[in-house]
Design goal:
With 447 residues, the protein is an alpha+beta fold.
């Protein structure tokens, strides 16, 4: 929940909320029956289905519960769900031509075969996507499922829990049929972000059962139970560690894109990386160090793949790199991105990874003189670094630079100055494009 639902605007956060509300409404109704209960169940169920149709099976417990009540209760629930669903159906039909809108495209990804078994295993135990790898404490929900009858005396709630177990298996099967079963560019098993609330109620049922070992007049657990508690404690520590990595380190290490997954289509994707134990997402992300997220830079630079900022730029630098004064608009010449600069231009760089000292990096610039050979002077944090001649042809300049420690939370200023007269007036802070054409900027950290 922490590293996925709270970190990005996937639908899984809303699914988790609606699913939690469904269960809460059911439990409250068992404590004290209310007339509005079937209405709320219908509303939440319909919203859950249309928020993310791939998770529609999670609405199954609500309808199983309603079906076990009086006919009026069940019909009210269904009518409420239908009325809530109607605007979504009308909108999706009018815009996309089907009731589930854009999600109908996922139907083309469904496919059963031997690969489904691999996908099924992958969503559960893949070193870089598996639910039981990223949140191993969740495996106790299986043991909790088999203790429902002994721990829950209310037969209606028993049906809810059993139907959830069925719904969860169906959900795993659905995602196992996806070509993109690993969930795309994400951290861990995001497809299960919505079902986690009830998974951990089942975990709680099992933990409650082993807690009986210390009851009945003694504070001491039997030795096997003590060992089990130590194992569970270790699973909890690992689960929390993984979430900390996802919340404070990801996307450092750039595991999703280096090397890229895509080979033309989902069906042609090389998924062997998802089973690579030494180069798994958790440890590569952790080894890359924590990241300082600047939301503005993140939004501006995360998709900056076709700009002059070379995608090979060290990931934490690319997220924190901004063009400042003196830069012209983005153009394309001979299929290459180009920006022109005046006699003064600057770049702001926030190295968004924790470090105790300065970071030794390499700055690479591909430049050419606009109308005649020029001279390029490079300054870093107001300090002169080097002077290079630039011809009218593409000239690659590579220079070592030192960026301030991110713990100081200060931006690094890289200035590009051209002493020759250029076409137009130029000048600091102006956007006259009379000096250089810049085709590439790359900053990489020296290991």
């Amino acid at each position: 929940m922490w590293s996925i639902n709270s970190q990005a605007l996937w639908q899984h956060g809303m699914i988790a909320l609606l699913f939690s509300l469904l269960f809460y409404i059911i439990v409250q109704n068992e404590r004290k029956a209310e007339l509005w209960t079937p209405v709320l169940l219908g509303i939440c169920s319909a919203l859950l289905v249309f928020t993310r149709p791939a998770d529609m099976f999670l609405a199954l417990p609500a309808f199983v519960y309603a079906a076990g009540k009086k006919t009026r209760f069940f019909l009210t629930c269904c009518i409420s769900a239908g009325i809530t669903a109607l605007p979504f159906v009308i909108y999706n039909e009018s815009i996309a031509g089907n009731i589930f809108g854009g999600y109908s495209n996922l139907l083309s990804q469904f496919g059963f075969g031997f690969q489904t078994l691999e996908h099924f295993a992958g969503v559960l135990i893949s070193p870089s996507r598996g639910l039981f790898v990223f949140t191993p404490i969740a495996i106790l929900c299986i043991l909790g499922f088999f203790q429902i009858r002994s721990r829950i005396t209310n037969t209606d709630l028993q049906k809810v829990f059993y139907s959830f177990g069925i719904a969860f298996v169906l959900e795993v099967l659905v995602y196992s049929t996806f070509n993109c079963w690993w969930g795309g560019t994400t951290y861990g098993p995001r497809f299960f972000g919505g079902s986690l609330p009830l998974i951990f109620v089942l975990v709680g049922i099992y933990l409650d059962s082993i807690g009986e070992g210390g009851r009945g007049g003694t504070d001491n657990h039997p030795k096997p139970v003590n060992i089990l508690i130590l194992v569970i404690g270790a699973l909890i520590l690992w689960s929390v560690f993984v979430q900390v990595v996802g919340a404070f380190y990801y996307p450092n290490g750039n595991w999703n894109d280096s090397p890229p997954f895509m080979i033309g289509s989902f069906a042609g994707t090389d998924t062997t990386r998802l089973w690579d134990v030494p180069d798994n997402q958790i440890f590569r992300t952790f080894n890359a160090g924590p990241i300082i997220i600047n939301p503005v830079n993140l939004v501006q630079n995360l998709q900056r793949k076709n700009d002059i900022i070379d995608p090979a730029t060290d990931f934490p630098i690319r997220l924190g790199l901004n063009l400042q004064d003196g830069w012209g608009g983005l153009e394309y010449r001979d299929g290459m991105p180009v920006r022109s600069v005046a006699d003064y231009s600057s770049i702001s760089v926030q190295y968004m990874r924790y470090s105790l000292g300065e970071n030794n990096c390499t700055l690479t610039i591909m430049a050419s003189g606009k109308d005649s050979p020029k001279t390029l002077e490079i300054y870093v944090n107001r300090k002169f670094i080097a002077r290079y001649p630039v011809s009218t042809q593409n000239t690659e300049i590579t220079v070592p630079v030192s960026l301030k420690s991110s713990l100081r939370l200060g931006n690094n200023l890289i200035e590009l100055r051209v002493p020759e007269n250029c076409i137009g007036t130029g000048g600091s802070g102006k956007t006259d494009q009379g000096c250089l054409d810049i085709r590439k900027i790359r900053i990489s950290r020296v290991a």
